[in-house]
């Protein structure tokens, strides 16, 4: 008897996505290697807790060194550093950032900050993962090393310090062999790391590849160290696991639509069933002596009709909660679309219900607040709300505003 699958990993492979499974809490074994470039097209994913490892091309790695060893300060310090670099993840797209400790010394810590680009259409698997992490953190390696491998047809690399990921990057090189252009991109990245006080000179270079005839001459010439070509190791679950958690509104909508279609299909079958029983029962009651037997059958089916009627009544009571147009996440997405891009305007609080909205925020310029107010009132997806947009007040940080929207009741309508 085969053991049940405890955990499943979706991993970007050389030319397509791979599925790895762990049984009985043991090591991961390859379940399927596909040529599928989009995770949404994966089929027959085994049951069990699912973790997706994002490819390196999906993230921006920002290593930094901070003069503190207080873990509570690391996320804020990483966010400030990212602000200076112009990295601002969308706050409405979920948890797209995380920080990992690479090396810790007294009042001096090397960190790796990860910024995930919001997944687009087809980037997530059909079954929602329980957790997420980065592929470069899932392959074991020791010492100060440079690892080079292919993901979905493109060469990527990772710089490791004492076995911990310090930096990773997807290159534009998709050649069959690691050539001079790949070596040049890696050297430029190492130079940039050195300029940030993160001088790492890899003691060895490892090329993970299933191609035994791979020629590492370009990398061997560029780094003057031992270059080994070996198969990529089996993945392991990163520890600690990342906090990455993208908000996939489209997948939630598809799931809700699928559930609604099932309920409507069951309701239609029940209606047909009750209608057919009633029609035949009435006709046979007038036509023959067999009517009594059919009426007995109709009476036996009556509880099902009553249960269906109760189901419809309860469904109508829940319409305010299950209608996708009343979803707070959906409403917040429409509000976010009204924020002028690159204006610096941000929402501090957003109290949202299907019938009432209250927004509090601030912006460095008055024009951004006025533009946001105009877009709210012009937005067709928010047309059922009547907006109150009083004049903003000036503060030390710019302009603060409090806007409210309300769905008019029948009594309040003229």
Protein architecture, described:
The chain is α+β, with helices and mostly antiparallel strands and about 425 residues long. It folds into 4 domains: about 5-55, no CATH class; about 55-120 and about 135-245, ATPase, nucleotide binding domain (Nucleotidyltransferase, domain 5), CATH 3.30.420.40; about 250-320; about 325-405, General secretion pathway protein M, EpsM (Gyrase A, domain 2), CATH 3.30.1360.100. The chain has 8 helices and 20 strands. The protein has helices at about 75-85, 180-195, 215-225, 250-285, 290-315, 320, 330-335, 365-380, and strands at about 5-10, 15-25, 30-35, 50-55, 60-65, 95, 95-105, 110-115, 130-135, 145-150, 155-160, 165-170, 205-210, 225-230, 245, 345-350, 355-365, 385-390, 395, 400-405. The protein has a 5-stranded mixed sheet with strand order 3-2-1-4-9, with no helix packed on it. It has a 5-stranded mixed sheet with strand order 12-11-10-13-14. A hairpin with a 2-residue loop joins strand 7 (about 95-105) and strand 8. Helix 2 (about 180-195) packs parallel to helix 3 (about 215-225) and helix 4 (about 250-285) runs antiparallel to helix 5. The longest helix is centred in the middle third of the chain and has 39 residues, at about 250-285. The protein is flat and about 100 Å long. It starts with a strand and ends in an 8-residue tail after the last strand. Residues about 250-255 have low confidence and may be disordered.
How is the secondary structure organized here?
Layout lengths: L4 E8 L4 E7 L4 E6 L15 E6 L4 E8 L7 H11 L9 E2 L1 E9 L2 E9 L14 E4 L10 E7 L2 E8 L2 E7 L9 H16 L8 E5 L8 H7 L2 E5 L14 E2 L2 H39 L3 H27 L1 H4 L5 H9 L9 E7 L3 E8 L2 H13 L7 E3 L4 E3 L2 E9 L8
């Amino acid at each position: 008897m085969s053991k049940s699958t405890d955990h499943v990993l979706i991993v970007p492979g050389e030319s397509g996505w791979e599925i790895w499974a762990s049984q009985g809490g043991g090591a991961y074994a390859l379940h399927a290697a596909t040529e599928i470039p989009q995770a949404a097209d994966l089929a027959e994913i085994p049951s069990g807790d699912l973790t997706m490892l994002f490819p390196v091309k999906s993230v921006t790695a920002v290593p930094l060194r901070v003069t503190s060893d207080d873990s509570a300060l690391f996320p804020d310090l990483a966010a400030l550093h990212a602000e200076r670099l112009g990295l601002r993840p969308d706050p409405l797209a979920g948890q797209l950032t995380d920080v990992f400790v690479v090396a810790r010394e007294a009042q001096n810590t090397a960190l790796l900050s990860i910024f995930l680009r919001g997944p687009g259409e087809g980037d997530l698997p059909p079954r929602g993962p329980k957790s997420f992490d980065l592929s470069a953190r899932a392959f074991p390696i020791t010492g100060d090393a440079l690892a080079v491998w292919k993901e979905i047809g493109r060469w990527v690399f990772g710089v490791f310090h004492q076995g911990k990921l310090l930096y990773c990057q997807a290159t534009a090189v998709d050649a069959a062999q690691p050539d001079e252009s790949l070596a040049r991109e890696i050297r430029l990245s190492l130079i940039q790391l050195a300029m940030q006080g993160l001088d790492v000179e890899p003691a060895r270079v490892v090329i993970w590849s299933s191609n035994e005839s791979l020629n590492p001459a370009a990398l061997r010439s560029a780094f003057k160290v031992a270059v080994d070509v070996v198969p990529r190791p089996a993945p392991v679950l990163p520890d600690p696991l990342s906090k990455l958690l993208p908000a996939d509104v489209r997948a939630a909508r598809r799931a809700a639509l699928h559930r609604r279609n099932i309920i409507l299909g069951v309701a239609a079958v029940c209606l047909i069933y009750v209608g057919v029983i009633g029609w035949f029962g009435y006709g046979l009651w007038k036509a023959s002596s067999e009517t009594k037997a059919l009426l007995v059958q109709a009476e036996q089916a009556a509880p099902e009709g009553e249960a269906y009627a109760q189901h419809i009544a309860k469904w109508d009571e829940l319409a305010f909660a299950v209608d996708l147009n009343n979803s707070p996440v959906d409403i917040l997405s429409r509000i976010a679309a009204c924020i002028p891009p690159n204006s610096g305007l941000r929402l501090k609080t957003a109290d949202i219900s299907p019938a009432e909205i209250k927004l509090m925020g601030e912006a460095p310029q008055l024009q951004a607040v006025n533009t946001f107010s105009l877009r709210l009132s012009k937005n067709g997806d928010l047309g059922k709300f009547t907006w109150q947009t009083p004049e903003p007040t000036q503060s030390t940080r710019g302009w603060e505003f409090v806007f409210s929207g309300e769905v008019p009741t029948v009594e309040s309508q003229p």
